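Weekly modeling sync, notes
Attendees: AB, CL, MP (scribe)

Item 1: holo prediction request
CL wants a bound-state model with FE2/S2 (inorganic) cluster before deciding which constructs to order. AB pointed out that an apo prediction alone won't tell us much about the pocket. Agreed to run with the ligand included and paste results into these notes for async review.

Input as submitted:
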Amino acid sequence: MRHRVARAAEIPPGGMVLVPLGRRGVGVYNVRGAFHALSNLCPHAGGPVCRGDVTGTTVAGGAPYAQEWVRDGEILRCPWHAWEIDITTGRTITDPTRTVATYPVTVEDGWVVVEVDER
Ligand code: FES
């Protein structure tokens, strides 16, 4: 089922709205102009993942023990145990075999439309 969740202008780049769709709600994110919709259900222990901060992550840098900050604004950090989730795919950084459910998003006549079938 398709749902108009907000006017596109109401979710600016870096913004998010949590809407009451699906079993636990759906977070609709704007990452640099592209919209993504994720379930508010963390695959680790069921935490309200969309209540977490939007951030980046670290990867190994070029020198020994060096770390590099990457993907700022593309990573969601669960508020319960800090698992990191790639907003653009739903895949967790912490355990790539586990994912947050994602939903198709389109912009139609200035509205952000999310397709969620679960009740
Ligand atoms: S419930 Fe999300 S990290 Fe544990």
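Recorded for review: The chain has a mean pLDDT of 96.
Action items: CL to compare against the apo run; MP to circulate these notes.
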